[in-house]
DNA sequence: ATCCTACGATGGACTTTGTCTAAGTCAAGC
DNA sequence: GCTTGACTTAGACAAAGTCCATCGTAGGAT
């Protein structure tokens, strides 16, 4: 059931109940959870799991490239298990809903050398902002 | 000297010593300050200015569209007085340095209707990440 | 010029998000 | 089934930001 778990085990991860639960929560169909939301759902399955462990585990998954950190607002980081497929985000300015989107074109190619100031550019994050249909009609 | 102040006054802003100081700090040549940095510089000119006032004032400037809120890392929002010229940001993953850049192309146009999910898309924020020359050589 | 009053400022408590640490626990190799 | 070092825990701590009751003052009215 859990691709994520398989991949993590394959990387020599020590498998603990806590890590399993965090991976399972992320692997559900609810993407873009905040760390605290992950913790809340993890607690439902494993009541004694601590916040620190959830933070640590999420951080490790990000390090391993299995999960993406998304920062669409300054409230909290969100975690996106969709790390294998490149995509960007569309955020409602009112309610905070996030959708994954795949724009055409490659924004990395749109940054000319003259605008790179000697940086080694490795990544680009695009966030579209707007109003979702629900908020627009309210 | 201060375009920003002129524009704000023109919008019927009540002019107070505190607001003047915040506008002047932003209007200097240091761009991309955090709220706390703005506060620190404001205190240097007006020792009794409070943090809440700096936050309120920055928030109002953002509302009025005179200043841009940039969130390149999770640590703190940064404020960019360059709101009149569209631009994006290039951030060093190591030291956090931020440069303004102007990519070619329009990312908004790159988002097809089919990927908009009924949203009214009004804005796009692009953040390039990489390593700056200083950090690369260190 | 002075007065009024609503708008703005204050500071300190509070909240949210995240990090750190010291001590205890347990997965996995032997 | 031991051992060991990686993992987990609870709670203290920190940073960034918000809220609120109260006080002060900019700027229009007189």
Produce the secondary structure layout:
The structure is a homodimer of 138-residue chains.
Chain A (H helix, E strand, L loop, with lengths): L2 H8 L6 H11 L5 E2 H11 L5 H13 L4 E3 L7 E3 L7 E5 L5 E4 L18 E12 L1 H5 L1
Parallel strand pairs in A: 4-6
Antiparallel strand pairs in A: 1-3, 2-3, 4-5
Helix pairs in contact in A: 2-3, 3-4
Chain B binds a DNA duplex (30 and 30 nucleotides) through helix 4.
In short:
With 138 residues, chain A is an alpha+beta fold. Helices cover 35% and strands 21% of the residues of chain A.
Task: Describe the structure in your own words.
Two copies of one chain form a homodimer. The first copy, chain A, has 138 residues and is an alpha+beta fold. Chain A has two domains: 3-80, Orthogonal Bundle (Arc Repressor Mutant, subunit A), CATH 1.10.10.10; 88-137, Dna Ligase, domain 1 (2-Layer Sandwich), CATH 3.30.1490.190. In chain A, 35% of the residues lie in helices and 21% in strands. Chain A is built from five helices and six strands. In chain A, strands 1-3-2 form a three-stranded antiparallel β-sheet. A three-stranded mixed β-sheet of chain A has the order 5-4-6. In chain A, strand 4 and strand 5 (98-101) form a beta hairpin. In chain A, helix 2 (17-27) crosses helix 3. The termini of chain A are far apart. The mean pLDDT of chain A is 87. Chain A binds chain B through residues 71, 73-74, 77, 90, 92-93, 99, 101-105, 107-108, 110-112, 115-133, 136, and chain B through 71, 73-74, 76-77, 90, 92-93, 99, 101-105, 107-108, 110-112, 115-133, 136. Strand 6 (120-131) of chain A pairs antiparallel with strand 6 (120-131) of chain B. Chain B binds a DNA duplex (30 and 30 nucleotides) through helix 4.
